[in-house]
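Reopening this ticket.

The earlier resolution said the output was attached, but the attachment link was broken on my side. Pasting everything inline this time so it's all in one place.
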Amino acid sequence: MKQIVITKQDNTRIHNAIRDAKQNNTIKKEDAEKLLAELHSAKIVSSEEIAKDVVTMNSIVKIHFANNKNIVQFQIVYPHLANMKEHKISIFSSVAAALIGYSVGDEIAWLVPSGMTKIIIDEIIYQPEAAGDFDL
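Inline output:
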């Protein structure tokens, strides 16, 4: 399994979001544990060091599933900013949690509500760090 890369800022903010969600009972224990396990195994770098092809928080990504060639585009956001009409999905969702820290071209096997699937990252349309937006 590939080691994911995540910024120190994203790591801290995601941990804080999980802590708050646990306190408010707005995240399932198993979802929190799965995301935390990913974070604990991640390589942590500064925002300035992250490669521009890595999915970070607030990135807009294009993906497709191996069993379906339809391309999907969305932005990965913190839970309080999630809005399906605006194609903004929470980091707590299965697909967003699967993508964080991976790079364009990566294929990620991930368990989603409908079962095991393979997600392929096709493109990063926008990555805050690559755009110099370090305080999003």
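Reporter confirms the inline version is readable. The CA atoms of residues 102 and 134 lie 19 Å apart. The longest strand covers residues 115-126.
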